[in-house]
Design brief:
With about 180 residues, the protein is of the alpha/beta class. It is about 35% helix and about 10% strand. The strands form 2 sheets. The chain has a 3-stranded parallel beta sheet, with helices on one face.
C-alpha cells in the first residue's frame, strides 16, 4: 500500500475567471505549499478535460454543448472556451480522484485529495454560484454504473445530494432513478 496521499492537480485546470470568486486559482496555491511535503504525492498525469459525452451522463446535452461552444455563460458569467476547458479539466481531476479512491485501494493510504472546487451549486441544466458542472453527481453516477457500487456504498454522498435536490435514488433497487434540476 502506498503511504503517501495522492493529490490530484494539473496546471491546465487553473484559470482566472475575472470574477469575485478566485476559487479556480486556489489549487495552484495549495500545490505549491505541499509539493515538497513527503506526506503527499502530486499526480498530474491522466488529468484532462472531460468531454461532452461524459458530462451529458448527468447534465442536459444542450446545456453542455452550449457551454463548451461558448454560447452559454459558465458559472462565472463568462463565455470563454479557454476557461471552459480549464473547468472541464477540474471535473476530470475530481473524477480521476474518485476513481482512484474507490477502485485502487492499494494506491493510497485510505485517502486521496483532489485540488478542486466549484461543483456543488451547478445542476443538471444550469450553472450557479460560480459552479459550471456538477462533478459530484457525475462521480457518484460513474461509480455506480461502471464500478458496480451499490447505493449503500455511497449512501451518505447520495443522501447529501438528494437533500440538496440533486438526485433521487431508488433505495429498494439501489440505483439512481433521476437527476433533478
Amino acid at each position: 500500500m502506498n503511504t503517501r496521499i495522492p493529490v490530484f492537480y494539473n496546471e491546465e485546470q487553473i484559470h482566472d475567471p475575472c470574477a469575485y470568486s478566485k476559487s479556480p486559482l486556489k489549487p495552484s496555491l495549495l500545490a505549491r505549499k505541499i509539493i515538497n511535503d513527503d506526506t503527499f504525492a502530486i499526480r498530474s498525469g491522466m488529468i484532462g478535460p472531460v468531454g461532452a459525452d461524459r458530462l451529458s451522463l448527468t447534465h442536459d446535452v444542450a446545456h453542455v454543448r452550449a457551454l463548451i461552444n461558448g454560447d452559454k455563460a459558465d458559472g462565472f458569467g463568462n463565455l470563454s472556451k479557454k476557461d471552459n476547458k480549464a473547468i472541464r479539466t477540474t471535473v476530470g481531476n475530481f473524477l480521476l480522484a474518485a476513481e482512484v479512491a474507490a477502485g485502487q485501494p492499494d494506491a493510497h493510504p485510505g485517502a486521496v485529495w483532489s485540488l478542486t472546487s466549484g461543483f456543488h451549486h451547478a445542476s443538471h441544466a444550469s450553472c450557479g454560484g460560480f459552479c459550471t458542472f456538477d462533478a459530484l453527481t457525475l462521480a457518484a453516477f460513474e461509480l455506480q454504473k461502471f464500478r458496480g457500487m451499490k447505493t449503500q456504498d455511497f449512501q451518505e454522498c447520495l443522501g447529501n445530494l438528494q437533500a440538496r435536490g440533486r438526485v433521487k435514488y431508488d433505495q429498494k433497487a439501489g440505483v439512481i432513478t433521476a437527476f433533478v434540476i
